[in-house]
Design goal:
By secondary structure, this protein is an alpha/beta fold. It folds into 2 domains: about 160 residues, Isopropylmalate Dehydrogenase (3-Layer(aba) Sandwich); about 160 residues, 3-Layer(aba) Sandwich (Isopropylmalate Dehydrogenase). Helix content is about 50%, strand content about 15%. A hairpin with a 2-residue loop joins strand 5 and strand 6.
Length: about 350
C-alpha cells in the first residue's frame, strides 16, 4: 500500500455481524499499515469485540455508533424509509461525505443496492449499477456482471455493463485490452434473445471495447473471456449454481476419502494436491463484489462470509480505492458516449 486508505465497515451486516466483521477488520489492519477503518454499528457490541482482541484503543480505528440494523429479510423500501440510522446507511453516507473512500458491507444485497443508489447516486451515463465479481477460471479468473442487481436488462444496460466490466479488468488486473463476451445460449450469431443480440451489435460497433462475441456457460470457467456480461437473473443463477457445485464436489471428495482405510491412505498421499485444489476453488478468496456504476466505491461481501472471506472483501475495496475505479468508469463511458454521438 502506498497511501492512506480509509474504509467504512458496516459491522452489523451479514449473517454473523460483529463476531465476523470485527476480527476481519483487525486482520486487515495488521496486513495494511496505512489502512484506517471506521467501524459502523452498535458501539457496545463493537467495543466488546475489540476488547476481546485487546484492540479497544487501536490508533487506526474509529467507531461510528448507530441504532438500527438492516435485517437480511428487510425489503429495500424498509431500509430506505425506516432505517435512516442503520449501520449500512451511515457507512454509505461516510463515503458520500468524503469521510471514507469506500464502504464494505455483508448486509442485505437488495437493500444495499437501493440505499447506495439513493445515498451515493450513480455516475453520469449509467442507467443501472451492476454487481461485479471475480470468478475462478482454468487460467486464472474473470470478472462477471451483473450478478443480481437487475433481473431484466435492455441492450443498453448490457452494453454499459460491458464497458464497466472492461474498466474494472483493466484497472484491477492491469490488462491493456481485456476481452469482453456476452453470456448466451450458443456461440452462433442467430442465438439469444433480442436484448443480447442488440447488445452484441452495440459492442461490435465500439472499438474501445475488445468484444469477442458470445460465450456459453462452460466458457466462463474455461477462461474464454476476461469479462462476462449478462443480466442479473442469469448471473445470480450461475453464481449460486457454481457455489453449489463446488460444495458438492468437496463433500463428495470427503465422503470418498473416508469410505475405507485404503481410501484414507490415498487421501494422505493426495493431500498436497487436495489442498492446492481447495485453494484454487475456495470461494473465500473471491468474496467482495463491487457495485459498479455508483459514484463511489461499495463492496458487497457475501452475507454468510467468514472472517477470512470478509478480509478479502476489504482487500477488494482497498484495490478499487487505489485504482480509482469509479472515476475510470466515468471517463471511459463519457468517451464512448461522445464517440457514439459523433458517429
Amino acid at each position: 500500500m502506498t497511501k492512506t486508505v480509509t474504509l467504512a465497515i458496516d459491522c452489523m451486516g451479514g449473517d454473523y455481524g460483529p463476531p465476523a466483521t470485527i476480527p476481519a477488520a483487525l486482520t486487515a489492519l495488521d496486513r495494511y499499515p496505512d489502512l484506517h477503518l471506521i467501524l459502523v454499528g452498535d458501539e457496545a457490541q463493537i467495543q466488546e469485540r475489540l476488547r476481546a482482541k485487546h484492540a479497544e484503543n487501536h490508533a487506526r480505528v474509529r467507531i461510528r455508533h448507530t441504532t438500527q440494523v438492516v435485517a437480511m429479510d428487510d425489503k429495500p423500501s424498509v431500509a430506505l424509509r425506516s432505517k435512516k440510522d442503520s449501520s449500512m446507511r451511515i457507512a454509505l453516507q461516510l463515503v458520500r461525505d468524503g469521510d471514507a473512500q469506500a464502504c464494505v458491507s455483508a448486509g442485505n444485497t437488495g437493500a444495499l443496492m437501493a440505499v447506495a443508489r439513493f445515498v451515493i447516486k450513480m455516475l453520469p451515463g449509467v442507467d443501472r449499477p451492476a454487481i461485479c465479481t471475480k470468478l475462478p477460471t482454468a487460467s486464472g479468473h474473470c470478472h462477471m456482471l451483473d450478478l443480481g442487481a437487475n433481473v431484466d436488462c435492455e441492450a443498453e444496460a448490457l452494453f454499459q455493463f460491458a464497458v464497466m466490466g472492461s474498466v474494472v479488468a483493466r484497472a484491477v488486473d492491469g490488462l491493456s485490452s481485456p476481452t469482453v463476451a456476452l453470456l448466451n445460449v450458443g456461440s452462433e450469431e442467430i442465438k439469444g434473445n433480442d436484448q443480447v443480440k442488440k447488445a452484441a451489435a452495440l459492442l461490435s460497433q465500439t472499438p474501445a471495447i475488445n468484444y469477442k462475441g458470445y460465450v456459453e456457460g462452460d466458457g466462463i470457467y474455461a477462461g474464454e473471456a476476461d469479462v462476462i456480461v449478462c443480466d442479473g437473473f442469469v448471473g445470480n443463477a450461475v453464481l449460486k449454481a457454481s457455489e453449489g457445485i463446488v460444495k458438492m464436489v468437496m463433500e463428495m471428495l470427503r465422503a470418498e476419502f473416508k469410505r475405507n482405510i485404503l481410501h484414507k491412505l490415498f487421501a494422505l498421499v493426495a493431500m498436497p494436491v487436495l489442498k492446492a485444489f481447495k485453494h484454487r476453488v475456495n470461494p473465500d478468496q473471491y468474496n467482495g463484489a463491487s457495485l459498479v456504476g455508483l459514484d463511489g466505491i461499495v463492496i458487497k461481501s457475501h452475507g454468510g462470509a467468514s472472517e477470512a472471506a470478509i478480509v478479502f472483501a476489504i482487500e477488494a475495496a482497498i484495490k478499487e480505492v487505489h485504482f480509482n475505479v469509479p472515476q475510470k468508469i466515468k471517463s471511459e463511458l463519457e468517451s464512448i458516449l461522445v464517440s457514439r454521438a459523433e458517429a
